[in-house]
Amino acid sequence: MTASSLKIRISHEGNIALGPGKIELLKHIEQHGSISAAAKQMKMSYRRAWELVDMMNRCFDQPVVVSTAGGSHGGGAQVTAFGQALMLAYQQILHKSAQAAADELHLITQHLKKT
């Protein structure tokens, strides 16, 4: 059983501050330097990707992603150092959770029906 089999969401005031989809979005923003390109990579609308970034930025006390408007020089987006720290912390939570629950996860997964 790997850590990626667990899905953990961190909630804040009724909103999902961080979860697997937002982590994936952050990875794509970091890779492409653009919310638009990240959205395309994930097959979601730019509007939806922007809403997810906005939600993360509103949930935390410092920016997770900073963006610059387009124009003659083009725009872009960058995952902040804080955003990178969140990504790392989230991965560590998944890893530690999977380790702590390994026996229980094994019991559950060994009894899942094969498709």
Describe what you observe in this structure:
By secondary structure, this protein is an alpha+beta fold. The chain is 55% helix and 13% strand. The chain has a two-stranded antiparallel ribbon. Strands 3-4 form a two-stranded antiparallel ribbon. The chain is elongated, with a radius of gyration of 17 Å. The two termini are 18 Å apart.
Number of domains: 1
Oligomer: single chain
Helix content: 40-55%
> Could you say what the CATH architecture is?
Orthogonal Bundle
Nearest-integer average pLDDT: 91
Report the radius of gyration as a whole number of Å. Answer: 17 Å
Strand order of the largest sheet: 1-2
Please tell me what the overall shape is: elongated
Strand portion:
5-15%
Kindly name the structural category.
Answer: alpha+beta
Key traits:
two-stranded antiparallel sheet; 115 residues; Arc Repressor Mutant, subunit A; 55% helix; 13% strand; alpha+beta; two-stranded antiparallel ribbon; elongated
